[in-house]
């Protein structure tokens, strides 16, 4: 006679535990993430859509939006090129100082952005060596757009490289060797073999990099000098408006910035689905 | 295309991977580079391909010094151990890749490239899979695509790195026979690397046995199996048993007893006697024979493998005797190798 034994799956907890963990996670998300984000949008539209539009089309706000987009348009491509080059060097070659370079790439993650800004003040300030040289050449670095771009570059350069290094290390050099054995040159191999192999990872890294470029506050705040309409990016504009008790305008710009971040997040989620499907192709027959 | 490897040495950093290796490969030959892992066989293959460059020495393709040429200029077909198919391209695009990347006038027109790729897929018996991606193929199919891709550029030399290493035994046997047919119908000079001696003996015209960065022996399969020129080759290829013996006036002695075996010109002194476990005869007269006490005995297929303690239990040797032989019931067996080799002790 068969005994009918019913035991729970050894790795499954009871229903209570399940619901408690879900509730804790949900509550935490709500308090820390969702409610504040909602508050930003509510506050932005408190005085109506007209006031919101007026706040973001005001000249200083428009200048801030333009500068943020300009900085992104310069920094993201530069960091993309740098990221691919660094990941390529680290993943595909053996050389002295490789471990050091890998650590160095992580530096911006471990250093406070304020310090990153101060580094450029020291380098290009009036009392420095480089500052006067650039000034006499007619190029103002500190308290100008070049300084803002430099500080942003410093803070965001690990994103693409970090995303690509494990991917490229995992893929090895086999495909590249196959391509050159078939007669492909260096550029052909890069465009036709290497780049398609890393495209999803690269796009993902670029999105993360872009999100950080637009949102960077600390480093930019130190080097910008806050010349309204000239060196003020969106995060700085928000702070300025806030400090002037112009809350609804501050929240309007904040809502726009949050929207940009949300778009990035949605793109990332979409990419992950496509990326996942790409891999799932392996089990299809 | 003849390939000549002349006094090639290769070091990776301080590690010597190949010491002074020379080898002549004749046009149209199918050559196996055989050896245990770390013997330098893959390094030699990559040097011929131009994927690595020798520290010293040169490699000739025909009369040309190929060591001065890049991989692209050597026009070789290379099949990688893990296939290295381009995962984002269809099977058809993979096969056509080598023609598509050609420059200017050397590049065939698009329809011609596609036709050539289709013909090759037909040749490797993969018709109908043109639109598939590599991750939708089985291991054996991937291997065929990799071969078709390498053949597409009409290589002067075909190089294969452990071509069957990642496949299961059944597919491996099938592809082995098939590669032989491909070789015969294309007539390419083909070099393949393997650690599987059975594969090398079955498939190759000549086998190059390598060990520790050196070539131990080059010869037809029969030669390296029947007349191994060193203890390393003897123990690497096929089953082998060995005994420490001494040589006195051209005769082999074991534990101070003559075995009735000729020393094959070995000098007097300490030596090692090698023989195949199945290549022995059981003898009644224990006077001039190796006598041992049965220590273990296993049945494998048609024979019985018997492990004997000989020379006062100091040594163990393995022999194979037919299952129906009366000796299988004995606890003491006297035997003599029918064929043997003697190498001086090192």
TrEMBL record, chain A:
This is Sulfate ABC transporter permease subunit CysW. The gene is cysW. It is a multi-pass membrane protein. The chain crosses the membrane at residues 20-42, 63-91, 111-134, 141-161, 245-267. SUPFAM superfamilies: MetI-like. Keywords: Membrane, Sulfate transport, Transmembrane, Transmembrane helix, Transport. It holds the Pfam family BPD_transp_1. InterPro entries: CysW_permease, MetI-like, MetI-like_sf, Sulph_transpt2. The complex is composed of two ATP-binding proteins (CysA), two transmembrane proteins (CysT and CysW) and a solute-binding protein (CysP). GO terms for cellular component: plasma membrane. One of its GO terms (molecular function) is ABC-type sulfate transporter activity. PROSITE patterns: ABC_TM1. Part of the ABC transporter complex CysAWTP (TC 3.A.1.6.1) involved in sulfate/thiosulfate import. Probably responsible for the translocation of the substrate across the membrane. Residues 65-268 form the ABC transmembrane type-1 domain. It is found in: Cell membrane.
Automatic annotation (TrEMBL), chain B:
SMART domains: AAA. NCBIfam families: 3a0106s01. The gene is cysA. It comes from Pelagibacterium lacus. The lineage of its organism: Bacteria, Pseudomonadati, Pseudomonadota, Alphaproteobacteria, Hyphomicrobiales. This is Sulfate ABC transporter ATP-binding protein. Its EC number is 3.6.3.25. Pfam families: ABC_tran, TOBE_3. InterPro entries: AAA+_ATPase, ABC_SmlMolc_Importer, ABC_transporter-like_ATP-bd, ABC_transporter-like_CS, P-loop_NTPase, Sulph_transpt1, TOBE-like. Belongs to the ABC transporter superfamily.
């Amino acid at each position: 006679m068969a005994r009918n034994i019913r035991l729970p799956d050894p790795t499954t907890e009871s229903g209570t535990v399940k619901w408690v963990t879900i509730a804790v996670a949900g509550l935490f998300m709500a308090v820390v993430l969702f409610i504040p984000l909602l508050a930003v949008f509510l506050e932005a539209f408190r005085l109506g859509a007209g006031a919101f539009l007026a706040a973001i089309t005001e000249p200083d706000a428009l200048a801030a939006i333009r500068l943020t987009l300009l900085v992104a348009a310069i920094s993201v491509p530069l960091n993309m090129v740098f990221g691919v080059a660094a990941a390529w060097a680290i993943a595909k070659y053996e050389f002295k100082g490789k471990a050091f370079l890998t650590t160095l790439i992580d530096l911006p993650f471990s250093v406070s952005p304020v310090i990153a800004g101060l580094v450029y003040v020291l380098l290009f300030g009036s009392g420095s060596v480089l500052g006067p040289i650039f000034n006499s050449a007619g190029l103002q670095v500190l308290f100008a757009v070049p300084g803002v771009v430099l500080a942003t570059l410093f803070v965001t350069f690990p994103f693409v490289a970090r995303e690509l290094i494990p991917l490229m290390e995992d893929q090895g050099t086999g495909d590249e060797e196959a391509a050159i054995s078939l007669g492909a040159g260096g550029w052909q191999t890069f465009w036709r073999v290497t780049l398609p192999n890393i495209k999803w990872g690269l796009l993902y890294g670029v999105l993360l990099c872009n999100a950080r470029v637009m949102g960077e506050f600390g480093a930019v705040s130190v080097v910008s000098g806050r010349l309204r309409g000239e060196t003020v990016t969106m995060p700085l504009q928000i702070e300025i408006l806030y400090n002037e008790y112009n809350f609804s305008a501050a929240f309007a710009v904040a809502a726009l910035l949050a929207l940009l971040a949300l778009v990035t997040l949605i793109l990332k989620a979409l990419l992950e689905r496509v990326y996942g499907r790409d891999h799932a192709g392996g089990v299809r027959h | 295309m003849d390939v000549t490897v002349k006094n090639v040495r290769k070091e990776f950093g301080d590690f010597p991977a190949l010491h002074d290796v020379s080898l002549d490969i004749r046009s149209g030959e199918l050559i196996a580079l055989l050896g245990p892992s770390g013997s330098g066989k893959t390094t030699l293959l990559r040097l011929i391909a131009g994927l690595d460059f020798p520290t010293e020495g040169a490699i000739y393709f025909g009369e040309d010094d190929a060591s001065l040429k890049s991989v692209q200029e050597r026009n070789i077909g290379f099949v990688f151990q893990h296939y290295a198919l381009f995962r984002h391209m269809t099977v058809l695009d993979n096969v056509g890749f080598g023609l598509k990347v050609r420059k200017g006038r050397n590049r065939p027109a698009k329809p011609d490239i596609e036709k050539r790729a289709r013909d090759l897929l037909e040749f490797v018996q993969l018709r109908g899979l043109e639109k598939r991606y590599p991750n939708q193929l089985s291991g054996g199919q991937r291997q065929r695509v990799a071969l078709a891709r390498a053949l597409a550029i009409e290589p002067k030399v075909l190089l294969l790195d452990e071509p069957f290493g990642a496949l299961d035994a059944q597919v491996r046997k099938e592809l082995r026979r098939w590669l032989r047919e491909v070789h015969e119908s294309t007539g390419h000079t083909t070099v393949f690397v393997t650690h599987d001696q059975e594969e090398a003996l079955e498939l190759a015209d000549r086998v190059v046995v390598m060990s520790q960065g050196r070539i131990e022996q080059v010869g037809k399969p029969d030669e390296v199996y029947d007349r191994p020129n060193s203890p390393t080759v003897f123990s690497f290829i096929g089953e082998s048993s060995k005994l420490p013996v001494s040589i006195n006036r051209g005769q082999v002695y074991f534990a101070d007893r003559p075995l009735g075996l000729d020393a094959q010109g070995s000098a007097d002194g300490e030596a090692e006697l090698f023989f195949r476990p199945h290549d022995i005869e059981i003898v009644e007269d224990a006077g001039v024979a190796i006598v041992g006490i049965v220590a273990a005995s296993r049945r494998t297929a048609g024979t019985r493998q018997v492990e004997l303690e000989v020379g006062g239990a100091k040594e163990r040797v393995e022999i194979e005797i037919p299952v129906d032989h009366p000796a299988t019931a004995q606890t003491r067996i006297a035997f003599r190798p029918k064929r043997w080799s003697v190498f001086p002790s090192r």
